[in-house]
């Protein structure tokens, strides 16, 4: 093509494509899942823009947010088209070949060890799975801000981009044409495609159509087509033979003679049901459906269940329905909630709900809430055992970052913290559990930071506290030091770093002991009759001796001893 510009794939992308092309991975169907998912993402993007600017959708067919799949048996092409956001020339160059995402090398590495190609979508490189079934791929795309371009590659280390001067204009969106490999011709089979699309589109919220064949009965004039259909021809002749029924015959002759033939036509057949799961009544959604939905959302197609989920309707200033999940493992790059002013309220509510859900996860875990009766009695306690530890393992860092960044939810997040201590016996414990074990008179929460528990156990600072039977938290995560600059107190208790010079362990037991030994005296001093006597003497002293009260402390102690004498009590 005269106007084609050539580009080389970025090295990691090239390696990834080699791996895919040479893969012996048998489940090649997944390419369709990835293409549908990309089309759906592109539709989501344009729909989102249209919320604030309806113009972006255009008119007529352009405004229809759908996905269309076509099979061309002669040319051996499978094409999938969406009316999503589309890609500019620059997008095509960047997204499909020159800028490697963080997931590219991570996925290449993974392929060299465990090698499950099914995970491709999670690493943000799902598009390249097209080369499992195609040896030549064209991507035709039209973005509102640019002309229509064609990206093409035979996966030979290079791709080309040309301004599209020969295909039909798309209006907006993307069409991907897969020139199927010889051994992948099965994807031209309509039935196979229908099954696959149904399987992969369960949670896609845009209609997906297949250009599907349909057998229809068609009435055609009988004489036009006599030779090709003997049976019908004979039939019509036999009716002509009925000579006695002249009247009837005449009438019949007035009618045009027709017959029915089977004809194959093509039409867009809708393959999915587009009712979003979050819009449904929670009572009608099964656990299996939530799990499957989670898998499609997370692009995680293993058999691990989400740790927990919450399906709710939020009411108030902003009303919305949502399903939140706690994944069984952290994604390789955590995604943040979208930044948009209109999402602020939603975000606030979602965060609260998410924290609630995580708190419940901890409470329902029999490992966590060791002495809570209700939990032990609950029927599914075994299933929940160890769930929180698993959560903590995957998302502990996120909770800590949350404490650092989110002042409003700091206390809620602090409740979710887990750590080891000098008394936790190798297990994880929470701040609430720490507090419940505090010594009487202990005011502060003691902690020590370092790189490992083993190293910290040798600390001379620790020795002093252990001797006095205080519990000390080990903070050994690199982020912990930073965390403690933000987490000043918890439930009115201050955090004290035990390795800081001049640590005050507190009035602790001394104060208690002191109080204990003077118990009788304080009780006596509070007695009403004593108070009255003291007051009386105070007044007497003022009036009778003209005593000038310039030292109240001294005065009080004198009163004290005279009252003592007058009542003949010896407190010592
Ligand atoms: P991911 O979908 O995880 O981002 P992919 O490898 O599947 O990774 O796709 C790479 C990128 O190519 C997408 O992020 C998107 O920018 C672009 N892309 C792929 N397919 C389409 C499409 N149908 N419409 C618009 N952009 C697309
Ligand atoms: Mg994708």
From TrEMBL:
It comes from the Eukaryota. Residues 219-233, 241-251 have a biased composition (Acidic residues). Residues 27-184 form the Histidine kinase/HSP90-like ATPase domain. Keywords: ATP-binding, Chaperone, Nucleotide-binding, Signal. Residues 219-259, 362-382 are annotated as: Disordered. The keyword Lipid biosynthesis does not apply. Belongs to the heat shock protein 90 family. This is Histidine kinase/HSP90-like ATPase domain-containing protein. It comes from Rehmannia glutinosa.
């Amino acid at each position: 093509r005269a106007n084609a510009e050539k580009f080389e794939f970025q090295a990691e992308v090239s390696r990834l494509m080699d791996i895919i092309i040479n893969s012996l991975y048998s489940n090649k169907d997944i390419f369709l899942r990835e293409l549908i998912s990309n089309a759906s993402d592109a539709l989501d993007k344009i729909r989102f823009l249209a919320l604030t600017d309806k113009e972006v959708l255009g008119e007529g067919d352009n405004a229809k947010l759908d996905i269309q799949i076509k099979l061309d048996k002669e040319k051996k092409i499978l094409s999938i088209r969406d009316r999503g956001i589309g890609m500019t020339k620059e997008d095509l160059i960047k997204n499909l070949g020159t800028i490697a995402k963080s997931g590219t090398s991570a996925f290449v590495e993974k392929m060299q060890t465990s090698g499950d190609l099914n995970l491709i979508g999670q690493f943000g490189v799902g598009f390249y799975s097209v080369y499992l079934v195609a040896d030549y791929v064209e991507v035709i795309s039209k973005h509102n801000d640019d002309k229509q371009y064609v990206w093409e590659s035979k996966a030979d280390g290079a791709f080309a981009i040309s301004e599209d001067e020969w295909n039909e204009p798309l209006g907006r969106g993307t069409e991907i044409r897969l020139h199927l490999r010889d051994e992948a011709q099965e994807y031209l089979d309509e039935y196979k495609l229908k099954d696959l699309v149904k399987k992969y589109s369960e949670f896609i919220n845009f209609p997906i159509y297949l250009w599907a064949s349909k057998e229809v009965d068609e009435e055609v004039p009988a004489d036009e087509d006599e030779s090709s259909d003997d049976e019908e021809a004979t039939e019509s002749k036999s009716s002509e033979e009925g000579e006695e029924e002249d009247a009837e015959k005449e009438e019949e002759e007035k009618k045009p003679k027709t017959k029915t033939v089977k004809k194959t036509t093509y039409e867009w057949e809708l393959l999915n049901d587009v009712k979003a799961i979050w819009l449904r009544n929670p009572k009608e959604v099964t656990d299996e459906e939530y799990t499957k939905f989670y898998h499609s959302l997370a692009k995680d197609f293993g058999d691990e269940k989400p740790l927990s989920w919450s399906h709710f309707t939020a009411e108030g200033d902003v009303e919305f329905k949502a399903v939140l999940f706690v994944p069984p493992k952290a994604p390789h790059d955590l995604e943040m909630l979208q930044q948009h002013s209109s999402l602020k309220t939603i975000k606030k509510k979602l965060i609260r709900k998410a924290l609630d859900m995580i708190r419940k996860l901890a409470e329902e875990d029999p490992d966590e809430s060791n002495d809570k009766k209700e939990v032990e009695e609950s029927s599914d306690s075994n299933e929940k055992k160890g769930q929180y530890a698993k959560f903590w393992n995957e998302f502990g860092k996120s909770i800590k970052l949350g404490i650092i960044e989110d002042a409003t939810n700091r206390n809620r997040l602090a409740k979710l913290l887990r750590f080891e201590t000098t008394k936790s016996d190798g297990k994880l414990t929470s701040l609430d559990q720490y507090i419940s074990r505090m010594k009487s008179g202990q005011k502060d929460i003691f902690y020590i930071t370092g790189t490992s528990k083993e190293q910290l156990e040798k600390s001379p600072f620790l020795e002093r506290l252990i001797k006095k039977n205080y519990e000390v938290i080990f903070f050994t995560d690199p982020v912990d030091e930073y965390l403690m600059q933000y987490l000043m107190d918890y439930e009115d208790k201050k955090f004290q770093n035990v390795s800081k010079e001049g640590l005050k362990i507190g009035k602790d037991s001394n104060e208690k002991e002191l109080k204990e030994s003077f118990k009788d005296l304080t009780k006596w001093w509070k007695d009403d009759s004593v108070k009255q006597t003291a007051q009386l003497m105070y007044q007497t002293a003022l009036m009778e001796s003209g005593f000038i009260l310039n030292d109240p402390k001294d005065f009080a102690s004198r009163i004290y001893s005279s009252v003592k004498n007058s009542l003949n009590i010896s407190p010592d």
